[in-house]
Design a protein that fits this description.
The chain is built from 13 helices and 8 strands. It is of the alpha/beta class and about 325 residues long. About 45% of the residues are buried. Bound molecules: guanosine-5'-diphosphate.
């Protein structure tokens, strides 16, 4: 999927509403701003961020006295681009890993169903394609299916997947006992270091029992990785489903409270009109969106570039 195709539904949703908002008007006035507010809120930008955008447009209109509705798109491009958090890994454009950050460790977090496994598979593919040696860690030991799915992705991409040691007989009998995710995380990073790999991507359990539980588990995983590599994890990547709108905000809040999320991947932007969530989440949490998912295929993941994204929506 290209960016423009992938954002079709969101663009159409916003565009038709925007067109309606400015129909028959030559300048941006309070009515237009009210309608604009409605457009953004219903496109899942979120109320806080919407008010921020409207406020900025209002200031520009006040400063320049007369702003025609034909300039609205330019204004929106400008202000929304400024609002979006900058990618904090500009040196990793196009999936190249700087020599001093190898092996680059990505810990991937998020609730079940958001597209975590798929995103890990797509990332492995892109990193490998860029010439990196990749290792995957199947540390979501709570779901047998997650383990198997990651193995399938590993085979597809042609990269090794580190699994937990087989269940002890005791554990097999007790459905509440699971292999330790931290042990898998440790093994994956150790293996990557041993074999001079460039990138390690570690899955985590997506079960949200409660916040304390989540926090403890993620902290433990981080700590064992640090035993192998003090700077690990370089990236704690939260995967959220862009088609769930406000739900995505709630999930982000929980994970941000539980661990130091420093990058976001927003999936399923194809086939949804709720793509405005990218703008709201990035603004509210001041965490850069690093990757976006635009389809189910192995190539349907892109590095998020805010200028291109905003241009695709409003350009
Ligand atoms: P997990 O439970 O978070 O590991 O989720 P999965 O990776 O298994 O994905 C759940 C479903 O979402 C699968 O059917 C994926 O094919 C689908 N999916 C993941 N990412 C995307 C995306 O960017 N676009 C679309 N359309 N589907 C996606």
């Amino acid at each position: 999927e290209t960016l423009d195709n992938g954002l079709d539904k969101t663009r159409q949703g916003m565009f038709s509403k925007l067109k309606h908002a400015i129909a028959g008007k030559s300048k941006i006035d309070d009515d237009v701003l009210d309608e604009l507010e409605e457009v953004f809120v219903t496109s899942d930008v979120g109320v806080e961020t919407t008010l921020k955008i409207i406020d900025r447009i209002q200031q520009r209109v006040a400063r320049d006295h007369y702003v025609g509705t034909s300039e609205l798109n330019d204004l929106l491009c400008d202000e929304i681009t400024k609002l979006l958090a900058d990618n904090n890994n500009a040196d990793m454009e196009d999936f190249t890993v700087p020599a001093d950050k190898k092996p680059y460790v990505i810990m991937v977090v998020g609730v079940n169903g958001v597209g975590k496994t798929t995103t890990i598979g797509k990332l492995a593919y892109q990193f490998k394609k860029a010439g990196n040696r990749v290792v995957l860690g199947a540390a979501d030991t709570f779901r047998a299916a997650a383990d198997e799915q990651l193995e399938i992705w590993g085979q597809r991409v042609g990269v090794p997947v580190i699994h937990h040691d087989h269940y002890e007989d005791e554990e097999k009998k007790d459905p509440n006992k699971h292999p330790d995710p931290a042990a898998v995380a440790y093994k994956a990073v150790a293996k990557a270091k041993e074999e001079n790999a460039d990138v390690v991507i570690v899955d985590t359990a997506g079960r949200l029992h409660n916040n304390v539980n989540l926090m403890n588990q993620l902290t433990k995983m981080k700590n064992v990785m640090k035993k192998v590599l003090p700077e690990a994890p370089h990236e704690i990547l939260l995967v959220i489903d862009g088609s769930t709108g406000q739900n995505a905000f709630e999930q982000a809040k929980q994970f941000v409270a539980a661990t130091e999320v420093n990058a976001l991947a927003v999936t399923k932007l194809d086939g949804t009109a709720k793509g405005g969530v990218v703008i709201g989440i990035s603004d509210q949490f001041q965490i850069p969106v690093k990757y976006i998912g635009l389809g189910e295929g192995i190539e349907d993941l892109q590095i998020f570039r805010k200028n291109e994204f905003v241009k695709s929506l409003f350009g």
